[in-house]
Amino acid sequence: MDKLISAAKSLKGTIDIPGDKSISHRALIFASMANGISKIQNLSTAADCMSTISCLNYLGAKIDRQANSTFIVEGKGRFGFTQPLNILDAGNSGTTIRLLSGLLAGLSFESEITGDKSLRKRPMKRIIDPLSQMGAKISAVDNKNYPPISIIGQKLKSISYTMPVASAQVKTAIMIAGLLCNGTTTIIEKYQSRDHTERMFKYLGADISAAFPKIEIRGGQLTSAEIFIPGDISSAIFFVVAALLVKNSNIKLKNVGLNPTRTGCLTALKKMGANINIIPDETRNEEPLGTIEVSSSKLNAINISAGDIPSMIDEIPILALAATQAEGKTIISGAEELRFKESDRLKAITDGLKRLGASIIEKPDGLEIDGPTPLIGTETESFGDHRLAMTMAIAGLIAEGETKINNFEAVNISFPEFINNLQMLIN
Ligand code: S3P
Q1: Exactly one of 48, 89, 195, 314 is catalytic; which is it?
Q2: Where are the alpha helices (DSSP H) in 59-194?
Q3: CA–CA separation, 56 vs 216, rounded Å?
Q4: What is 3-18+230-425's CATH number, 3.40.630.30, 1.20.1250.20, 3.65.10.10, 3.30.70.640?
Q5: Pairing relation of β-strands 303-304 and 328-332?
Q6: Consecutive 10-residue runs of the chain (427 residues): their mean pLDDT?
Q7: 370 is annotated as an active-site residue
Q8: Pocket test for ligand 1, best of 51, 169, 199 (most atoms within 8 A of CB)
Q9: Can you tell me which atom of ligand 1 is nearest the CA of 310?
């Protein structure tokens, strides 16, 4: 599906942001591992989370949709899953394949998990290594790094593991496996990645202590609960940047998750001079949330380096667009992890924004962007990556004339409501 986006005059209004994808995956998996019935509200209904539901169904979990975004999960208990009759399909979702590998590693049956063409190019050695150390029989079927992954579940042993890359997916795979062990599993991080698992484990009664850089998790059973999923900051950020860049704009985004391990993008934009006002709400199931108010702003360039990246890992493409409109040279470094996402995001964002006339250079570990540069509408594409599709759409709002984005359906991976929500804000 192609999408045509025209230059916008202003953005105004208040909208609710749909549930966070990262937290939704965790809620589904942990509620399935719990004892008892959990109610999850405001779950993301994006394609990636539907992949997690489908895999959990194949493992015998019972997940019912009660209303649009309200789901009831009947927990199986941590060892209560059954052997799937088919190869599990994680679709496009790195979180699904990596988190479920941590679970499958400790269950007493054989399984195989794979995904779509893009997922089959994403590195899995990062979970195979620590899970093997825990005693799992886990390997990449075709070679050493890429899906499909074949797993023969074992009785796992606890380990102490220092993370070689900052990755919440890898950390969570080890933590899930840690719940299936007898002893204490210790994880040491160099840079803090998102801590949704730590928070939700605590909320669901796990025996965990977590204070960066160290997490200790003891084997044990989770209990069911009511979980409310905050709005996804990684979705909200597209409208935040849109309102900053489109003149005469003023918007409010309600119910957005404001976990500090995710809000690096807001900190960076504020440093660039953005008019962003945050009104905190009550914390729900250990996750802070609130309203974000944004109005059009004049931006300045910024330096972003390795230590900043984990808290804005998914927001670099849209921050790169903001940098094309900022005064001066923005330098982003230490961001080589972006090459292992749904696309090689350093390459794709450079290619995509260059087509619209931006001054952007791809570096081995980052980007250099000169601004401000007027953008001109033209034909571009999603590169099969939801975050690139949405970044190009926001670029289209400030580009002269019309911007055509090919394969725009990629947005459904994280934010199927994107175009409807955007239309509500365009004046
Ligand atoms: C995620 C962690 C990040 C992020 C991804 C979701 C998660 O990946 O990019 O979109 O839900 O834990 P890494 O753990 O590979 O950095």
Answers
A1: 314
A2: 94-104, 125-133, 168-179
A3: 26
A4: 3.65.10.10
A5: parallel
A6: 97 98 98 98 98 98 95 98 97 98 98 97 97 97 88 97 97 98 96 97 98 98 98 98 98 98 98 98 97 98 98 98 98 98 98 98 98 97 98 98 98 98 95
A7: no
A8: 169
A9: 16
